[in-house]
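Example record used in the benchmark description.
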Amino acid sequence: MTPRERTNQSLASSFERYLQDKGKGRGGDGGNYRRNAARELERFAEWAAGDRGADDWTGIVSDDVDRKPTFDDLDERVFREYARHLGGDRGLKQNTVQTYYRYISAWCGWCVNEGYLEAHYAQRASAMAPLPEDDGRKPGDQQAWTSEQRHALTRHVDERARDAVEAYTTLPEDTDPLDKQRARYVALKATRDRALVFVLAYTAVRVGELLRDPNDPRRRGVRWEDLSLDDGSMDVYRKKQQWDAASLPDPVISPLRSYRQLMDPPTEQWPVFPTFDQRTLAELVQDDLADRGERPEAITERRAEYARDLLLALDEDIRPPSITTDGARSILQRLSEAAEIDIDHPKHDYLAPHGGRRGMGEVLVRAFGYTVAARYLDNSEEMVRERYSHIEAGELGDVATEALEQID
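Model output (C-alpha cells):
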C-alpha cells in the first residue's frame, strides 16, 4: 500500500498494526500498554466520527459527507480540539488528561513513520496548548507505607500466621482428617499472606514483577525455582523487559521458609503465591483429573476426600495459577481492615502494593542516599531523585533552619 493510499484509510484500519507493534509477548497481544492504548484509540475514533463528545459535536467530517474519518481529515486543529475535549468535556483530572493524550500522540508518531500522516500533528504546540499542566505526579502512585504502617501490618500478619500454624501443628492425633485439612488450609492461607506482605514491604519489588498479570503472558508470577533463600535473592522479570535478580533481605527469609515448609510444593515450578480462589481451583482440579482419564463419579469422590481443592492440587501436582496483581490488592484491602491500620490517603483507604515499594524507597534514600536506593529499586538515580525530591527538600530545610539559628 502506497503512502497516498494509506492516507485514504479509516483511522481504525491502523489500530491493529499499531497495537501489534506496541504489544508484548508472542504475537504482540499482551501488556497493559496495549490494552490501555486500544481503549483510548477506540475513544478517539468514536470522537472523530461524532459518536462521543458534546451534544453539538458532529465529528471531524463535514455533515454533508457520508463516510468515516480518514487520515486525510487529520491535522493539528483536530488534535487541538481533542485535547480540549479531554480537558473539559470529560471532566478528567489533569494528569489523566495528559496520560490519555499521550496514547493518541504516540499513535500519531507511529502513523508518521508508517506513511499514514505527513507530520506529527499531535506534538505541535498549537495542538497541545489546551492540555492542562502536568504537575509531575502519577495518579494513585503517591502512597508510601510509613514505618508505623509497615510495622502494624507485618506484626498483624505475623501473629495471624503464628496462631494458625500453632493451631494446626498442635492438633491431637485422633483429629478427624477433614478437620486437620481445614486447619492446614487456614495455616497455608495465613502464611501465604504473611510472606506476600513481607515481600512487598521489604524487597521493593514491583507487584507486577512478583505476581501474574493477565494482560502480559510473560508475567506468570514468581515460582519457587526463582527463589534462592540461602543466597537471599529472587529472579524477577523486570519492567525493563529482562530477567534480573532482586534482593531478599533478612526479614523476608523466615516467612518464606516457614511458608514453603508448610506448603511442601510438589515441584519447583509451583507458584510461590498461588490463588486460593475456590471457583478457579475447583474448575482446574476437575479439568485436570478429567484429562487424566478420571470419570466424573471418581472425580467427585476424590474431591470429597479433601476439605479444599487446593490440598488435592498439592497432592496431585495440579499446578494452579499465581494470584494476580488485582488479587494482591484485594488481599491487602482485607488485611489493612483487619489490622485496623490508620490510613490517610485521598485515593487508597488501604495499604496498596506500590506503597510498600515507595515506603522502602523512602527508607533507603534517608539511610544510604539516592545511588544505593536506585540500585535496590531498579531505577535510574535521576528518577529516584525526582520521585523522592521531598526528602532532599526537607533535609535542605533543616540545614536552612540551622543556618538561621546560627546567624540570626
